[in-house]
Specification:
Blueprint: E1 27-31, H1 43-58, E2 62-67, H2 70-83, E3 90-94, H3 102-105, E4 108-112, E5 115-122, H4 125-128, H5 134-137, H6 139-147, E6 150-157, E7 164-165, E8 170-174, H7 175-178, H8 189-200, E9 204-208, E10 226-229, E11 232-237, H9 246-258, E12 268-273, E13 278-280, E14 283-285, E15 293-295, E16 298-303, H10 308-326, E17 339-344, E18 353-357, H11 381-384, E19 406-410, E20 421-423, E21 441-442
Parallel strand pairs: 1-2, 2-3, 3-20, 5-6, 6-21, 8-9, 11-12, 16-17, 18-19
Antiparallel strand pairs: 1-19, 4-5, 7-8, 10-11, 13-14, 15-16
């Protein structure tokens, strides 16, 4: 008989792993923007950015879209049709949310011998900054139930945007976010590395230091450094030595240059420029080209109406595309093709807005071309770049700068969604609380 005092198994202990973002996946999850406190005076612009992102994604994968009610589902369905949503099916989920940042509020999808699973970490609105957050803390359980995935509930806080992985056991994260800004007794490097090993299969954790200016996530790594493939990382550098971002980004670059991955390799580091400072209502926004999103056959990239856009797209980001999705897939050897979709900056992040779901891989449908369709206004970042992807709450909420903020990757072999179908509750799950099986929750 099993010892009832035995510690519950963690996902990595039973063979689950966290796939890399560039691996072929089944769907992307989006939580449609709706909160006027998040987007004061900018909700229309935010919705346009989400719509453009959904259309860009729809040709290569399914979309799972969280909306509040049938009326919103019908309206968004009409917007998608009018915008020319291509190919991929989409399904609506009628669930109330507090905000739109499903990269942070959704689960981390995992794959393993038992199929699809997900790590459901606690969410507390970035250290309790922006109440209420109870609906968003319940979102991961609903997503996992809808995906038919096993749920592993962790009783500690970890946001998806605070970590990046190569699918081979090496993770990037920051001290400023995981250690210094989340109130929890005893939370130090040793504890967090044990947790990352047990829950996500990390064998090597590379710790960066600080954050870009204006980042109210306290240093999510998806603005600072991203894996392109095992052994290769892209990181922004600030060229202006008088800019407050100069020193922390130089320190992060130094640490990456000295780091080795889980296979013992020194990292190849590809430099990205930083855009000029972007302000909204006098507050600096955390703009970064590193907050791109690697979808099936395409890369979604934030642009800022600045001269550095072309350098980022033609240099660093085209390198991202060829390295991350243009070369042979490391698992299957199949060729993957990429389009680059520059997305104008309503000043926030794309990566925090979405979550990937990985499946039994299906071939991506992108074509072998790089497609540029950036739009710009007067060219002055303060006037034209309305925040795209972070929450502006009351007087002070500013946002990240890219696609990574808005998306959640789903890696699962689950029944294909039906175009336009809507669900109000996942099978076996009720609105908000986690109903994972006994023995599947824990704090380490």
């Amino acid at each position: 008989m099993a010892d009832p005092r035995a510690e519950p198994a963690r996902p990595a202990h039973i063979g689950f792993r966290w796939p890399a973002e560039w691996e072929p996946h089944r769907a992307t999850w989006l939580a449609w923007p709706h909160n006027p406190e998040t987007w004061p005076g900018l909700l229309v612009q935010a919705e346009r950015a989400f719509l453009e992102m959904a259309v860009a994604l729809s040709d290569g994968e399914d979309l799972e879209i969280v909306v509040r009610d049938p009326g919103e589902a019908k309206r968004v369905e009409g917007l998608l049709a009018a915008a020319g949503s291509r190919g991929g099916s989409h399904r609506f989920h009628l669930w109330e949310t507090d905000d739109s940042w499903v990269r942070d509020t959704g689960p981390v999808f995992l794959t393993g011998p038992e199929g699809l699973a997900g790590a459901d970490f606690r969410f507390d609105a970035w250290g309790g900054k922006y109440p209420p957050w109870d609906r968003d803390d319940g979102l991961a359980a609903r997503i996992l139930a809808a995906a038919g995935a096993a749920s592993y509930r962790a009783e500690f806080v970890l946001e998806g945007g605070s970590i990046d992985g190569d699918g081979r056991g090496c993770l990037l994260t920051t001290e400023s976010c995981l250690l210094h800004s989340r109130p929890e007794a005893g939370r130090d490097k040793a504890l967090m590395e044990r947790r990352l090993r047990a829950w996500l299969g990390a064998r090597e954790v590379i710790w960066l230091s600080g954050e870009v200016q204006g980042d109210d996530t306290d240093g999510h790594v998806d603005d600072l450094a991203r894996f392109l493939r095992p052994g290769v990382v892209v990181a922004p550098l600030e060229e202006d030595s008088a800019d407050p971002n100069f020193r922390p980004l130089a320190e992060n670059r130094r640490r990456l240059g000295e780091a080795r991955d889980a296979a013992g390799r020194k990292l190849e580091v590809v430099d990205l420029p930083m855009p000029p400072p972007v302000f909204h209502r006098g507050e600096r926004c955390p703009a970064s080209y590193a907050n791109f999103y690697l979808a099936n056959g395409r890369v979604l990239v934030p642009v800022f109406g600045a001269p550095t856009d072309e350098r980022a797209l033609a240099g660093g980001v085209s390198g991202v595309a060829s390295r991350a999705t243009g070369d042979s897939d490391p698992e299957s050897g199949a060729r993957r093709r990429t389009r680059i979709h520059p997305l104008p900056h309503p000043s926030g992040a794309r990566h925090v807005e979405a979550r990937l779901r990985f499946p039994a891989p299906r071939p991506p449908s992108g074509r072998a071309s790089f497609r540029f369709h950036a739009r710009s206004g007067s060219g002055t970042p303060e006037a034209d770049n309305v925040p795209r992807s972070r929450r502006i709450r009351a007087q002070r909420r500013v946002w990240p700068s890219a696609p990574h903020a808005a998306v959640l990757v789903q890696v699962a072999a689950s029944p294909p969604p039906i175009r336009g179908a809507a669900s109000s509750d996942p099978p076996g799950g009720s609105a908000g609380r986690r109903g994972e099986p006994p023995g599947r929750s824990g704090d380490e």
